[in-house]
Batch of 2 targets.
Target 1
Amino acid sequence: MRVAAGVLALGLLAGCGSKDDDKAEEKESAKPSPSATTEAPASYYDVPFGVTLTEPGTQLALGAEGVIAFERRQKEIGVLSVKVERIERTSFQESFAGWNVDDVTAARTPYFVRLTVTNLGDTDLGGLKLDNVIWANDGTTLEAPNQYTKAQLPACAGDPLPASFLKAATAQICQVYFIAPARTLETISFIPPAGLDPVTWAGEISKVEKPVKKKPKKKPSQEAT
């Protein structure tokens, strides 16, 4: 009711002005608002011209591109195009056979998350690990990734980005997340600074793709002469 009363009071005050005042107000209101026509939404970090960051709070499907910026080091901003290609649920029995896994970790569920990343910024991101950039959300907790080299875990290689990773360079990596018992991986998340809402990816969770074993080539038969 207080809002309605305020609107009514404004209407009564407007009726007391002269006709000239009314015309002046109409002309003024017809002018476009400078903020609505000339100002672009502010980025949370400065990025190169032509790069548009994905708006915080955006929910993306698997395979969709999100453009993110983060502070790699003090005053060193990285800008990446990120596509979460697949989320795969697996098990320690299936993908970590022979590993020495403690009981606490063994109670969790492992997930493989496969990413394609492209450098859109001017900073060389060579050697970067995304362990503090891309997180998994189980609905209550953000889980940091575990990254293993191809030698350690061929099924989900998460080597750092190449030593030189300049603008337009692209790489495919895989990150491992261990999700708490009775929880499932709900979204993959990037958390912008300053308390802004996360950019998230979600979609159908797949089964781990087993590598196809190549059949050995048959040796040509030798005919007796």
Target 2
Amino acid sequence: MIRTAFYIIFLFNSIYSYSQNLNEVCTSIFLIRHAEKVRDNSGDKNPHLNSDGVLRANKWRDVLKHIKFDRIYSTNLYRTLETAFPISKYNQLEIQTYLPSKGYYNQFLELNKGKTILVVGHSNTTPEFVNSLIKNNFYKDISDDNNGNLYYVQKCNNNKPNHLLFYIN
């Protein structure tokens, strides 16, 4: 499944890139929700990953290890930072934190033009971020028991963004 998802993304990216003018600049954005978190204290607003979450964070590193990221973004919470950490370590990149907001989303493409980016967010902010990038209310909030969505958005110059959703169990 991991290889299949990678090859689909690679094929999609290759076909789309081939069909574009060589002078175009493309931005590729991969977005995931944080891995499974500790749930034994409902009052804890900033829990760490649980043991399944640590395993999933390492799985995300394995799924995405063939992608050369230029930047990695995460909200400034333990569960998102801990999800991003194995990928940032593998890519030898520092994690840049962001505050989810429509204003930030609107600037994001311009700030990262021509880059390959990973964004780690939450069950509500990740679909909202994708919808902002594609300028369409296409994706709904992620179910609380779903930590396996991988969104891919590619935006080349002024063309309409292409987007895909994969589920990696």
